[in-house]
Amino acid sequence: MNKEKITLIGAGLAGPLMATYLANRGYSVDIFERRSDMRKSELSAGRSINLALSARGIHALKDVEIYDKIELIAIPMKGRMIHDLDGTTQLQPYGQGENEVIYSVSRAQLNMDLMTLAENTGLVDIHFEHKLDFADLDNNELTFGDKRVFFDKVLGCDGSSSALRKAIHKKSIAEYFKKPLGHGYKELTIPPSDSGDFRIEKFALHIWPRGEFMLIALPNMDGSFTCTLFFPMTGPTSFETVKNENEIMSLFQNHFPDAFELMPTLCEDFQNNPTGNLATVYCNPWHYKDKAVLLGDAAHAVVPFFGQGMNASFQDCSVLNNLIGKYSGDWDKIFENFSTFHVKNGHAIAEMAIENYIEMRDSVNDPNYKKRRQLEFDLEQKFPDRFIPRYSMVSFHQIPYSEVYNRGEIQLELMNKFLTGEITESNLHTTILNKLHPIT
Ligand SMILES: Cc1cc2nc3c(=O)[nH]c(=O)nc-3n(C[C@H](O)[C@H](O)[C@H](O)COP(=O)(O)OP(=O)(O)OC[C@H]3O[C@@H](n4cnc5c(N)ncnc54)[C@H](O)[C@@H]3O)c2cc1C
Q1: Ligand 1 in contact with 187 (CB < 6 A)?
Q2: Which of 28, 60, 96, 384 maximizes the CB count within 10 A of its CB?
Q3: 7 lines ligand 1 (CB under 6 A)
């Protein structure tokens, strides 16, 4: 029996991965993508923007058998390298053991490899320069400029400003809101040294935490670092007030003096690169009947401070793929189950990502935070099946985000009570056994 054709909007990170999963099950897929084919443009070879890849994303990439290739362009980052104002640095490991690392990968290379992987199945066609303007979900019709396309099932992987989400929201009783963070970002560069080497530690994610704002840097294969300044959009020290060369140089000389010396094109980059805005998208449900469903940022765009947006989007693809296997052909059940069980995970990672901004820009230097971090590692060693630091649950495990969130709250309360002397060591151990059931 011929399987129905699936229509998918967006050939960003999630779209081609989901298309590959579908093709591997025998479905043919038409992807419609707003942009032109980045594999054919000069730009793809240009400035490198990178992303942190971790266990959830890796799991999906292994599923579709592309991880071996991606691993070759992935730089392991063992921990956060904290840069203090006086230039001293300290490495705070992400986890325990050499496998508990996250990886810096080039967004463009990953995206291009995923598109090629999808096309190589022989069942996926990507139609570039097709921007979805409007979706008529009752009549199964999509409008791209003056072209109309009929669909049977449509999957929205069209990112945080999803056009398909608008249609679902309009048709159903979907709750939807976009919550701005109030902070934005600017991408900058630390080039390689004259001899092509990394100018700062290669195997780390660098952070310059400065309270209300921060700078981070992730390594690229060519010896450079992509830096991102996360900064208030408005206010006395903000993108509104830092614009001209003097203002930019004074911000960096005063707050990031060691980074400033490594950024010869700082002012140019700052003035030429766009200021990105950050927001969280909340939407529930993610589907409309057995016709349409949202994945990735279209369903749950999160702020980037847990390095999980792409990882969560890739996990969406593997979760949906499993449901397609489980309820073969019953799309009502597939979409309904995806929404019902997974929306809460989207909401949980959204909250944790916002909380992590405060941790990264402020708490990492707080002695209490450091004590708690050490305690987390100690307890993990004593109770490996019950107590795992929240960062590790998110980045090195597949535990659903909502469960991570709930366990994280219990763990935090226990640790705080222990550190303030409210509970003793033996009480702490008994409480862990009572309150935290083994992780399955
Ligand atoms: C500064 C920053 C840093 C980040 N760092 C990390 C990180 O370290 N780790 C991590 O896991 N995540 C990170 N993320 C998040 C990550 O980028 C996203 O979660 C991820 O790209 C989501 O994938 P997606 O396929 O859902 O959306 P996208 O990758 O945005 O793809 C959407 C695609 O749909 C296309 N499209 C949009 N509208 C239409 C339309 N109307 N018609 C047709 N096509 C359309 C777009 O052109 C695009 O190709 C970061 C995000 C930001 C902003």
Answers
A1: no
A2: 60
A3: no
pLDDT, one tens digit per residue, over 159-170 is 999 999 999 998
Query: Which of the listed residues 103, 104, 158 should we mutate to test ligand 1's pocket, taking the one with most ligand atoms within 8 A of CB?
Result: 158
Q: Is the CB of 32 under 6 A from ligand 1?
A: yes
Instruction: Note whether 5 and 30 are within 8 A (CB).
Output: yes
Q: Which of 69, 36, 31 is nearest to 53 (CA)?
A: 69
**Cβ-based burial of 243 (10 A; exposed 0-12, middle 13-18, buried ≥19):** exposed
Residue nearest to atom 38 of ligand 1 (CA): 158
Cα(84) to ligand 1 centroid in Å equals 31
Which residue in the block uniquely carries the two structure tokens 């009549």? Answer: 139
In whole angstroms, give the CA distance from residue 310 to residue 206: 20
- Residue with the smallest CA separation from ligand 1 atom 49 is 12
pLDDT digits (tens, 9 = 90+) for 222-241: 999 999 999 999 999 999 99
- Residue 309 Cα to ligand 1 midpoint, Å, equals 8
pTM (2 d.p.):
0.97
> Domains in the chain and their CATH numbers?
6-46+107-179+280-356 (3.50.50.60), 180-277 (3.30.9.30), 366-435 (no CATH)
Task: Express each pLDDT in 297-353 by its tens digit.
Answer: 999 999 999 999 999 999 999 999 999 999 998 999 999 999 999 999 999 999 999
